[in-house]
Specification:
This protein is of the alpha/beta class. It folds into 2 domains: 155 residues, Glucose Oxidase, domain 1 (3-Layer(bba) Sandwich); 199 residues, Rossmann fold (3-Layer(aba) Sandwich). The chain has 11 helices and 19 strands. A 10-stranded mixed beta sheet has the order 10-12-11-13-14-19-18-17-15-16, with helices on both faces. A 7-stranded mixed beta barrel has the order 1-2-8-6-4-3-9. Strands 5-7 form a two-stranded parallel ribbon. The longest helix is centred in the middle third of the chain and has 11 residues. The termini are far apart.
């Protein structure tokens, strides 16, 4: 069904980066005076290369603190719906697109992207040269930035170091506050550092999944008598999530452990490995990952600014094995601790959005939990 064009109001503005580079843009809204006065919002500017799946991207809690630039030029043309929400709200600080479609046409579409953004009080900006912005970030790295209605010189004065993800524990900020239980089967505990609904769905098909807040103590975790532990995705700097080491290290070897994205980095830090910030991160649904030595290639969905260093894994006092490598830049994408029955991958095997090449990892975890 074709829906009528939204009534859209446009307010001129700028995106200013920490290095002084500025881009003209328009803040769009359903209300004429939504962005009147000296409006501004700051965050870390990154780019994402997905061709579709914008709703899943911006509702992924891993994007907390970041302004997401979509390299695909036409965004909004199939609307949004309830099923594809990865969390109850938009977590991106700002959604940056080249062209926004005020008409959406899809049998699953329930409302517009603009409506979803405004519900979460997140600016949707358009009419910006996203190609030039992406090239700049690719050349100079992810940068703090401010979107606002003032002149560029005034906006640049507002940029602070706190607008990056460096040294910030955003996991506890986005994590749930209450415990939830989903599914049936062998019981596992999933620590919510910013978990996506799709991940909970895949886990609950195989396990009784007890989802607990990010700062749950190891004593509370063990009180559930779990047969496995899942470490979720999430935002921010893994080095700032120091409490995670106290959750993970004491249970290593006592049960199977599976980590993804931030969980991958936290498992590595729990065995003494180090994490570093990548130049502009991996954000997209088309990243090639090699499995083993000359093994299969998986096309993966990714969203992370930090990575585990291969050298520090090799120096760990635990026996580690690198299992997956990013074929674009050779970054470690997966490792295992065979003696500890633990493994992790840097990418998103639930693929929301993205290809389903990596769904086998959930089945591998299920076999470990069942002792197979």
């Amino acid at each position: 069904m074709i829906y009528t064009t939204e009534r859209i109001h446009k307010t001129p503005g700028y995106l200013v980066l920490a290095d002084g580079t500025s881009f003209e843009l328009e803040l769009i809204s359903s209300e004429k005076d939504r962005y009147r006065g000296d409006f501004f919002v700051g965050g870390e500017v990154v780019f994402n290369t997905v061709l579709s799946g914008y709703q899943e991207v911006i509702t992924d809690p891993s994007y907390a603190g970041q302004m997401v630039t979509f390299t695909t030029p036409e965004i909004g043309n199939y609307g949004v719906n309830t099923i594809d929400m990865e969390s109850p709200r938009v977590w991106a600080q700002v959604v940056i697109v080249r062209n926004y479609s005020g008409i959406f046409s899809n049998y699953r579409g329930e409302r517009s992207l603009l409506d979803l953004c405004e519900e979460s009080n997140v600016p949707l900006v358009t009419s910006i040269d996203t190609r030039a912005l992406t090239r700049h970030l690719r050349n100079f790295g992810a940068l703090a930035g401010v979107v606002g209605t003032a002149e560029p010189i005034a906006l640049q004065r507002l940029i602070t170091n706190e607008m990056t993800t460096d040294g910030r524990d955003l996991a506890s900020f986005v994590s749930r506050k209450e415990i939830d239980v989903h599914g049936s089967g062998p019981r596992i505990v999933a620590i919510d550092y910013g978990i996506k609904r799709s991940i909970v769905r895949y886990l609950s098909h195989r396990f009784e999944t007890v989802v607990v807040p990010a700062k749950t103590s190891v004593e509370e975790i063990m009180a559930y008598n779990p047969r496995g532990l899942f470490l979720s995705n999430g935002p921010g700097d893994p080095a700032a999530v120091d409490y995670a080491v106290d959750q993970i290290a004491p249970v290593l070897g006592s049960m199977p452990i599976f980590g993804i994205c931030l969980g991958h980095q936290l498992l590595a830090r729990a065995v003494g490995a180090e994490t570093v910030k990548l130049k502009f991160g991996h954000h997209g649904g088309n990243h090639p990952v090699g499995r083993g030595d000359g093994g299969a290639v998986e096309i993966t969905s990714q969203n992370h600014n930090y990575a585990v260093t291969r050298e520090s894994l090799a120096e760990s006092s635990f026996a580690t094995e690198v299992t997956h490598i990013n074929l674009n830049d050779q970054v470690v994408e997966g490792f295992s601790l065979p003696a500890m029955r633990a493994f992790a991958v840097q990418y998103h095997p639930e693929a929301a959005p993205g290809p389903h090449d990596s769904l086998y990892l959930f089945e591998e975890f299920s076999k470990m939990v069942q002792g197979k």
